[in-house]
Amino acid sequence: MRVENIAAVLVTAELPSFARPGARLDVTVSSVGDARSLQGGTLTATALRGVDGRVVALAQGPLSLGGFGVGRAGNAVAVNHLTAGRVPGGGIVQVPAQATMPSGGQILLALREPDFVTARRLAESINADLGSGVAHPVDPATVALDVPAEYQGAVPDLMARIEPLPVEVDAPARVVINERTGTVVVGANVRIRAAAVAHGNLSVRISTRYDVSQPAPFSHRGDTVVVPDQRLEVDEGDMQLVALDEGATLQDVVRALNALGATPRDVIAIMQALKVAGALRAELVIL
């Protein structure tokens, strides 16, 4: 084997709950050495271990990078990352996951995103289906469910019954800004107080044109010289003032910003100014 065709890699996978021996896992392979590309590579049999050192799964198979790279004589073109890839279904679970279902008593339901309103709505939806007093919120991240007598010893049937229950999740009012890419995402619950937004652009353009100055024809005096012609132009765009009423919704904000002709980076500056002014009723998250 040629040494330069071998890469040292880190192999990881996520073991889902209640996984049984023989189940397939998607495996992620990342280079940890100086390999320039894993394109066309094959992962040899690799043991995946848990935090306790026990072998949980075995992984092997050809890599899928989702990109490619070509190059020769110092010239190279690469699409996507060539030092990380996946082996779809390349891992085989060897031992059962350490997870058991309770047989009765009380079940604690954990919310993925803690919220008081969502926890209360979840408890109300369960009580409307199973009976009053069966479920109650413990904290913003937990809802306690008392297993009814008819489901003692049959908790999976109970979970299958409450799983499709409709629950309206309380979405926080949030504005997410990524200044590096100029991306602005505004949540549907964003509200603003009465405010006025003025937006104007000031552009300064300096240009230099070189002209040639020549002496008169058949003249023995004077030299041909280059004369720079500098021009300075200042253009201030038409400033517009848009008033936003109390309790304006997302559509009102977007419509107003579009009326200003604001670019994504202008929107970022306007959102930050509204937050400082106390008119933006939302959490401002900057990535």
Structure description:
- A hairpin with a 5-residue loop joins β3 and β4.
- The protein has helices at residues 116-130, 155-162, 250-259, 264-277; strands at residues 9-13, 24-31, 42-49, 55-62, 68-72, 75-79, 84-93, 106-110, 135-139, 142-146, 174-178, 183-186, 191-192, 195-199, 202-213, 225-236, 240-244, 280-281, 283-286.
- The strands form seven sheets. A five-stranded antiparallel sheet has the order 1-2-7-4-3, with no helix packed on it.
- 16% of the residues lie in helices and 40% in strands.
- The longest helix is centred in the middle third of the chain and has 15 residues, at 116-130.
- It folds into four domains: 6-93, no CATH class; 106-162; 174-201 and 238-286, no CATH class; 203-236, no CATH class.
- By secondary structure, the protein is an alpha+beta fold.
Structural class: alpha+beta
Q: List low-confidence stretches.
A: none
Fraction in beta strands:
35-45%
Q: What's the Cα radius of gyration? A: 32 Å
Shape: flat
**End-to-end span in angstroms?**
45 Å
Largest sheet features:
5 strands, antiparallel
Across the major sheet, the strand order is 1-2-7-4-3
Write down the overall mean pLDDT: 79
**SSE pattern:** EEEEEEEEHEEHEEEEEEEHHEE
Q: How many E-type strands? A: 19
